[in-house]
Amino acid sequence: MCCRRIAFWLLALVHWAQANDINIAFWIDPVQKDIYGDISLVLKEVEKLHLEGKINDFIIVIERDNDYEIENGDDGHMKTFCDVLSYSGVSVVLDFTYEPWHEGLDFVQTYGIPYLKVDNILKPFLQMFANFLHQKNGVEVVIMTQNEQDKREVIQEMIDGFRLRTLVLNAGESNQTDFVKAIKDLRPSPGYYAIFAKGSNMNTIFDKLFKGNVFERPAEWHFVFLDTRDRVFKFRKQVEFANKFTVNPRSVCRSLRMKDAYCQSGFTFQRALLLEIFRALIDITQKNFGWLEPMQRDCNGSYSSKELVEDNQYQEFDIIDHLKVTDFMIFSTANNPNHLEDEVQLATPLTFVVNVSINMYSNEHEAITDLAVWQNGELKRINQTLSPAKRFYRIGTAEAIPWSYYRKNPQTGDLLLDSKGQPIWEGFCIDMIQTLSEKLNFDYEIVPPTSGKFGRRNTTTNEWDGLVGDLIRGETDFAVAALKMYSEREEYIDFLAPYFEQTGITIVMRKPVKQTSLFKFMTVLRVEVWMSVLGAIVSTAIVIWLLDTYSPYSARNNKKAYPYPCREFTIRESFWFALTSFTPQGGGEAPKAISARILVAAYWLFVVLMLATFTANLAAFLTVERMQTPVQSLEQLARQSRINYTVVHESDTHQYFINMDFAEKTLYRMWKELSLNASRDFHKFRVWDYPIKEQYGRILMAINSSMPVKDVEEGFRKVNERESADYAFIHDSSEIKYEITRNCNLTEVGEVFAEQPYAVAVQQGSHLGDPIGYAILELQKDRYFEELKAKYWNRSHSNCPLSEEEQGITLESLGGVFIATLCGLGLAMISLVIEVCFNKRKAKNSNIRQVKPVEETKSSQGIWHSQEEKKHKLTPPPQYEAATFRGRKIPPSITLGTEFKPGRLESRRPLTQNKSEEETVVQEQLPDYLE
């Protein structure tokens, strides 16, 4: 009897011990490798806590790839789970999987097996980080994780509802280095980067990033520590102003009701959550005997509800209602969206509460600046100035003056480099990029095209090069350059509102170098005309002399008709008259004879006509000389053959002429088919001439014969070297206008044709289109582009001299007139010297007689001498006949007195007693008597 009682109590004890056992089936994904170690550590911790209960774990890996299904069949996972149910039984199922296992869920719900869903471990940290970025208006972020499990969780949470554009990279594998290249090649580069890792792994990941020069880009970095060991991070000085998300170990252990040492080395939140779940399950078994007793079940058998109740295998309670919620472990309030329609919804998942301090590293003060605190699922600001980070874009541009070009040394022409050894860009587009960066708050890097220039499509491979190709491949985020809006390009990229509309194609030539000549005015008339004019002057002068000499009615031969002195037309006077008649002063006194006057009248008519002709031709000659241009339009350039012209090889202008030539040929072929068609509907197309003017084919042939130049600089150089203006360069009108402001020798010919605007280009469907487009429209409203246009195309800034239209007729054209005047002045001075010398020589050779003074009389003394002049006796004037005829024979008709009688002076003007007045009267009246 005693033995039976002992055996009974032993069986009861064994049954009680088995009743306290909790068999937990873990459903996990293959990437959740860390859970093995955490479960083992937590089981040891439970034993150390001396809790009345034993936990047995069964881990079932839910494979979802095709290889497993091929090897084990679709129900391979269910067989494993059924084996556990058959041999050991299952008290509760802990589901750690990221996607629901619907077959297993249907089974546990059918047989009433308790089920708990454990939320993703990174979910609280992702909620905190998403709220923090929302406060900073951040949208795009790169998240780097320490292993594949964390990467899978981040991706799952992003799919479930975090509104962030995120790139998730696994940066924790030992041989994983591709993530650094992926970050550097990311287009567009986001403004936010985050690393989710434990303290020890954070050092490893950052070291890879630092060696890959990822931190050279201006961005905002966030270091989210998934444990309490943030102090082991040794790169604090290299991450100035980076944000740090840390957890206080003491507060975590306090919420776990554990010692502080538990939250130090080796601590993970998954481990802490498992400990809380095990505690809660043991607490349920202690308070409710038999509720979590392991349930054994044969998956191949069938059981009715009555049998389940009789065997005490059906647990009629909801484990969620009895699971104790602590300060650390809670049920997630958000509904998990991972369920399909018409299927059973998942249970509310378990998660944990974590309080995170958000700080900022400060290299300058070696301190940490507090920004915010994450408590109880809410973000509380400490620093109210949570400004958004600047975005970073790679902006494509191509070299084109004045849009975007490298800065060069004006003396040597060498490229100027910045502090990083990179070329310095400048130009219209570079100024616009800088303004957009300030307006939209982003940093940028200017990227030249990897191949080509603006963008050409390879018809064989259908691939683009240049700026368009870089945009399509994602090498750049958007392009700001002299990129024209072509319909072919719009099939692959998107264009925004044009920022420059007045552009097209035009022609540039060199201004003709004029042959300057001081006597250019002489070229108005030909040499034979000038010789004829000279002959007319000479012949007219000779004939006038002959007519005045031999005509009986001339003043020389007809003294009675002309008793007064008249002009005597000697050969010298005749030439002087003929020459001066060409001047506005006139020839002076004309001949008296009728025959001579007829000749003079005819000569004057000749002079008037010649002067009018010369004046009109001179004005027209100078005007035409200033306005002379070889060609005036593209049509004239195409019709002539003297001037060669070219374009830049494979440029947009070259492609334009190729397309126009193709269009002309295609239209001609279609017209020929229509005109030769026998249908009555097309008889009107049968005309004598082809109705469309063909010129682009001839232009393209001329361009190919002249050989297209390789770049714009060569084109302008060739034009500038042709001083005879026999070379033209067809190119973009804006670049030509800019070059004309810098080179005074160039001029624009004709009007702009093939006008197309310039616009900013983005990738198709890019989210950057709207903000950049709005910014461009606002700049247009503020007349910003007009200011840039005045900056780069303002001709007043150039040092070019005024054109002849602005400065008038130059001295080079009429300098000969001044030289002729100076020559006349010189000849006059030479003649004066000759006359003086001749007169002195003549006076020396002639007989000079001494004039005897008249004897003084009393009356004469009063006239000629004053009291002061008695000391200086004056010589009386000579006799009248001596002063007038000077020894020549006196005509008999003239009777002269024997001596000079001063008394005659009294009859004209009374003498004054004043000495000075007497001298003045004598000096004034002496010339009259001398004459």
Protein architecture, described:
This protein has 931 residues and is an alpha/beta fold. It is built from 32 helices and 25 strands. The strands form 6 sheets. The protein has an 8-stranded mixed β-sheet, with helices on both faces. Strands 18-15-19-25-20 form a 5-stranded mixed β-sheet. Strand 12 (356-362) and strand 13 form a beta hairpin. Helix 2 (34-48) crosses helix 11 and helix 17 packs antiparallel against helix 19.
Compose a concise summary of this entry:
The chain is an alpha/beta fold and 931 residues long.
Write the layout of secondary structure elements.
Elements: H1 2-20, E1 21-28, H2 34-48, E2 54-61, H3 66-72, H4 76-87, E3 92-95, H5 102-111, E4 115-117, H6 123-135, E5 140-145, H7 148-160, E6 165-170, H8 178-184, E7 192-197, H9 199-211, E8 220-225, E9 243-247, H10 249-256, H11 269-287, H12 305-310, H13 319-322, E10 329-331, E11 350-352, E12 356-362, E13 367-375, E14 378-381, E15 391-396, E16 405-406, E17 425-426, H14 428-440, E18 442-447, H15 466-473, E19 478-479, H16 487-490, E20 493-500, E21 505-510, H17 527-550, H18 571-580, H19 594-627, H20 634-639, E22 644-646, H21 652-675, H22 696-706, H23 712-721, E23 727-732, H24 733-742, E24 746-753, E25 758-763, H25 769-781, H26 784-792, H27 804-807, H28 811-845, H29 858-864, H30 880-885, H31 904-908, H32 915-930
Parallel strand pairs: 1-2, 1-3, 3-4, 5-6, 5-7, 7-8, 8-9, 15-18, 15-19, 22-23
Antiparallel strand pairs: 9-12, 10-11, 12-13, 13-14, 16-17, 19-25, 20-25, 21-23, 21-24
Helix pairs in contact: 2-11, 17-18, 17-19, 21-22
